[in-house]
Design brief:
The structure holds 2 protein chains of 2 kinds. By secondary structure, chain A is mainly α. Chain A has 2 domains: 226 residues, no CATH class; 237 residues, no CATH class. Chain A is built from 22 helices and no strands. The radius of gyration of chain A is 27 Å and the shape is globular. By secondary structure, chain B is α/β, with parallel strands linked by helices. Chain B has a single domain, classed as P-loop containing nucleotide triphosphate hydrolases (Rossmann fold). In chain B, a hairpin with a 2-residue loop joins strand 4 and strand 5. Chain B starts with a strand and ends with a helix. The chains are: A mainly alpha, B alpha/beta. At the A-B interface, helix 10, helix 16 and helix 22 of A face helix 2 of B. Chain B: This is ABC transporter ATP-binding protein. Chain B: It comes from Flagellimonas hymeniacidonis.
Chain lengths: 489, 231
Amino acid sequence: MFKHFINLQWKSFFRSSSFGKGLALKIVMIFFGIYMIGALVFVGGFLYEILRKLFPDQAPMWVLSRYLVYWILIELFFRYFLQKLPVMDIKPLLSFPIKKSTITHYILGKSGFSGYNALALFLFVPFGVVLLFNGYPVLNVVLWLVSIFAIVLCINYVNFLVNKSDKALGIIGGIIVLQYGLDYFQILPVKDFFGPIFHGLYQYPIAVLVPVALAILAYFLNYKLLKNKLFLDASLKTKSKEAKTSDLTWTKRFGDMGTFLQLDLKMIWRNKRTKAQVFISLLFVFYGLIFYTQEVYANMIPMFAFLGIFMTGIFLSNFGQFIPAWDSGYYSMMMSQNIPLRKYLESKATLISVSVVAMFLLTIPYVYFGWEALAINFGSAIYNLGVNIPVILFFGSFNKKRIDLDKSPFGNMQGTSSTQFLIMLPVLGLPILIFTGAYYLISMEAAVIILSLLGVIGFALKNYLLDRITEQYRRKKYGMIAGFKEKNS
Amino acid sequence: MITTENLSKKYGSQTVLNIESLEIPKGQSFGLVGNNGAGKTTFFSLLLDLIQPTTGHIINNEVQVNKSEDWKPFTASFIDESFLIGYLTPEEYFYFVGDLRGRNKADVDALLSTFEDFFHGEILGQKKYLRDLSKGNQKKVGIVASFIGNPEVVILDEPFANLDPTTQIRLKGIIKELAAKQNVTVLVSSHDLMHVTEVCERIVVLNKGEIVKDIQTSTQTLKELETFFAG
């Protein structure tokens, strides 16, 4: 039986739509994967040295043990978002003559091989190897690694157990914050309490039995729970949330455009991927902190231009690059309805404009790091408003890849094609180039003025540009309709 | 109302549709039947300017559809689920379509109230998004949305599929009434010979992209179609 399952797994992996993607995208994804693994191995390899430098009076193993409890909780927290038990995969198997227990073992066993479990190994195995080179006893280190892997499996299965309500997420998050708080203000020595427990896993090889037993226990709890739920109406049904009708009549003030604005707002708010885009964009406000606070960048004014364009334009590029693919699910309806295409585009432009202004307002506190930051962000915002919005809308007409709004937003590359990489060049690169040129040739003030001026010119030409873009969308209409219909692209 | 001249659609060397001429007068209920791949949906897609014809053109009420967009205000359609917006509730979707067709909330509500029977209490006020409705209920929403704004031409692709028997019967009544009383040109495609013969005044059979039969419906029509498709 398991031979068939493995066969199915193999096919689902190699025939998955992500494998059929364009070559460029594939290379980028592989590159990113290698980078992630490389980074983990690198950190794992140097962890010993790092810990010895940071805590010279304590053994690295001891220090690491003190922090393991945080690792477990944080990993559990992130897995909550990233990993779900793929119960839907087994729906087609239910009506075949396969024992329910076999199906349950299959789906639970499969999750044991998930990539998330391997991530921790990429970190801890190099660390273990370094330990061996430093003369640590082989038996202890090897069994410690086994313990770590058992803990990873525990995390894996505990995640499935708790992954049912958002309350669990809140509780895990709460525990992390609370623990850290207790630790930080030295109310309760959490690290001192958990440190010896985890260190025991290394010190007493026989202790390996404890995490292994816990992992097995977690597995069987899952098994028992899941086996009784293998019915179409219980756990296999995709949950549908109760719809909330929202009254957005204020959008009527925008005239004809209001209809589309209302639609766009609902789209963003009611779909996972678009909602995530908004939160990610908001988080990027803090991106500046990384650079403004570092002495090294204090004199690299062009870096500030990058920050300005990037921070005020993050939603513009994140959301804008996929216009009109966001509407791909019902694009043929849009095209056969009595829709003024121009109003449709105008609504998108307005939405992005609001985001640029909002992001600029949020970056104002950076004036703390000097008025240059504010001036450059202002110039960048104007440039984004005037030039980048038409540019990104124009390039949108080359989008032909469908986006299913309901798919998970994490690591979702759906809708991405070489167009996206081409878009980023003019949107991000050009203004930075212009700014840098003007800055070195004349002065920073001049560079800001030039950026703003370009933005104002773009703004003045807005109507003309939108007309041209509308024409472009009309010309590309058939290609888009055909492209958006392809489900597995 | 609708005039087709020399229309053909080719993908590579494969011809999927080839109609020399087809004339559909105003107020006719027109049925299109044919096996899979006969070109029914292709014809409707051409009529809605969703794909480009290889040769020829369609004229809808004096507007050539692939040249001007002026046919849109008086033409409504429901082809498949891709005409629905999944993250809206049925009400929101109706109001959205109403907005596009220049109808306010009250107009739409008035129209919807006449379809209460048809909805069978499963559509309005359910607090569900369209994506969470069953296939049949989604279809009901799409069909009714195509009646908003008094269109002169209504195009429905496979409207009977996925509907429960009660709704099928009600839909037949609605379509007949549209054509007879309101002088609306209704174009319907179907795999169900019984339904089309019941609803349509005229039936055109497509086979591999060509018109092979053009019948004014009579009592013998169903027999005739059955013998044809039995092959």
